[in-house]
TrEMBL record:
The protein's name: Class I SAM-dependent methyltransferase
SUPFAM superfamilies recorded: S-adenosyl-L-methionine-dependent methyltransferases
Organism annotation: Phocaeicola faecium
UniProt keyword Cell inner membrane present: no
InterPro entries per the UniProt record, alphabetical: SAM-dependent_MTases_sf
Name of a matching Pfam family: Methyltransf_23
UniProt entry keywords in alphabetical sequence: Methyltransferase, Transferase
Domain of life: Bacteria
GO biological process: methylation
Entry's Gene Ontology molecular function annotations: methyltransferase activity
Protein's UniProt keywords contain Methyltransferase: yes
Length: 279
């Protein structure tokens, strides 16, 4: 199908599906040294921390709630109250700062210079650049997290291989991504805001995420829904559709999506996947 870059340029991009495994990917994406301009906006919240507009205020409220949930998930999955954590695509630094206060030794990676500067100024964090990922020693981390980051990574297979190398044998890899098999994705089709072309290069489902893990020596041990994402994504989609009262309409669709995920968690708008290395 053909999706539009509603966020930055208005350009159309095709999404294709592999006939063998069902994996979805954005076709003809910009080159790695050109894609930065598709992120250049004062409204790109994960890089700027903007509070402008109702949508971004909702985002901040949900983020504060989710920090605690993420921390508890890591503790439950690792069996550790503190250890060595790597957060990839850390944005403006809220999550690593929160985990540091919990007693974890945290390393973090972020591509955006603007976001790294914000994290340094507000939290005193020294955030690494993406090139640092390949330099970490083998079996360095008890937990590695990617919160809505995997879909942005140009070098997908190489990244999985590196994650397997630097994760401890009993460590956990936690990945959150939009779910292209979700209730709201099926409802909105090519208008679904979480396709977010061309910034999202890959579009995962529970099936293809499990296949990726297995391909690179990981076992999927947990799948968890992210019910709040349906409300945010649905409101954003209705905004892109120029729907009158888009917040209300998005909330209604979000509620339906939330109910659908209660009946079947694999229909959640976004999913959290917990992997362990094969022993």
């Amino acid at each position: 199908m053909t999706c539009k870059d509603h966020y930055a340029t208005g350009e159309p991009f095709e999404i294709c599906r592999c006939r063998t495994c069902g994996f979805l990917f954005t076709q003809s994406v910009p080159a790695e040294n050109e894609i930065g301009r598709y992120y250049e906006s004062p409204d790109y919240i994960s890089h700027t921390d903007t509070h402008k507009g109702l949508m971004n205020r909702v985002y901040h409220y949900v983020r504060r709630y989710m920090l605690g949930r993420k921390s508890r998930l890591i503790k439950h999955s690792c069996g550790l109250s503190r250890g060595y954590l790597l957060d990839i695509g850390t944005g403006t630094g809220y999550f690593p700062h929160f985990m540091q206060k919990k007693g974890w030794r945290v390393s973090a990676i972020e591509k955006s210079p603007q976001a790294r500067a914000f994290a340094k100024e507000h939290f005193g964090l020294d955030i690494d650049t993406p090139e640092t990922l390949g330099t970490y020693p083998d079996k360095s981390f008890d937990a590695i997290t990617l919160w809505h980051v995997m879909e942005h990574l140009e070098h997908l297979n190489e990244t999985w291989e590196t994650l397997g190398r630097i994760l401890k044998d009993r460590g956990v890899l936690i990945i959150a991504v939009p779910n292209a098999d979700s209730f709201d994705a099926q409802k909105y089709k090519e208008m679904w805001a979480a396709y977010d072309v061309p910034r999202h290069l890959w579009h995962f489902t529970p099936s293809t995420m499990q296949q990726f893990g297995a391909k690179h020596g990981f076992i999927l041990t947990q799948r968890r829904p992210m019910p709040f994402d349906a409300f945010y994504v649905s409101m954003l989609t209705e905004k892109y559709k120029k729907t009158p009262c888009y917040v209300l309409k998005g909330m209604i669709t979000g509620a339906k999506a939330w109910a659908a995920s209660l009946a079947k968690k694999d229909r959640s708008s976004s999913m959290i996947y917990v992997f362990r290395k094969k022993q």
